[in-house]
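Q: Sequence in, structure out?
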Amino acid sequence: MVVLNKRYSSREICEKLQILAKEYSDIAVYREIGASYDRRPIGMVRIGMGKPTLILTGGIHGRESVNPVILLHMLERYLQCFQEEEKFDGYDICELFVHTSLCVIPLLNPDGYEIAQKGFGQIHNPMLAQVCRMKRIPADQWKMNARAVDINRNFPCQSYIPATVDDFPASEKETRALMRIFEEYHTVGYVDFHSRGKIIYYYRRAKSYSFNTKSARIARRLKRLSGYTLGAPADEGNKLGDGGNSVQYYAEQFDHPALTVETLPDQAEFPLDCSYQREAYEEIRLVPLELLGVLTGEKKENIRKDV
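A: Exactly. Output:
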């Protein structure tokens, strides 16, 4: 069982994914989609029987330690409801996952997660550990991977800007692992969970008016479910160094909605207290189900009518 308001190591998160896939093998499949530079596995579980697939990611930034556990718990609750043929707060899980699928990657950056949790000593490769220490960034504030690269500025899209003269897009193993998942599945959308602000960002500067209008309609539905606010278009990717995000890349390459959901209040300080997990889970637990239904047209039977 995945317990909220508790800390988990990256190894424990990966082990929990494997256990869930084994326990619910009639609908869930585990994949190791890649490995970090410090040789930590990057795990994913796919649930569902349909081709239309929604991708969820968390933990792209190491210090954002709350969302990986929330996504793991959310996955477990969906699987329990499917097995027991129960509705999940009004959503017909069984019917939904017969026609669609969900790929959950709770922790894309396990090295950065371990640094933020326990310090640079968690990096076994001494050369990588030294590279990280040379950045002079406190461990509990660490966003990057074990090569000191911000994965969420590393995707090859129009807004990509190299941080140094030696940088190039998709240079990182973690970046390429997610790009392969985007390519391998019949995706209909993508949500990347970050922290902080309780905001949903939907606007993609490189995309058309009609694309962003559709994304705004979807985001408003999710706003009503979560109680979060909507990010203003002027706030999205408008700062130097904000480019190269996974959502920008996905939207440009696949022409489907790509949302960033920022959990936790603005005042949440790093290192994040694990006591935020329960509240944030309650706020976002319905977001993937609603989004899957909207994107695949499974509205009548599977989406709550009061949204």
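Residues 10-302 form a domain with the Aminopeptidase fold (CATH 3.40.630.10).
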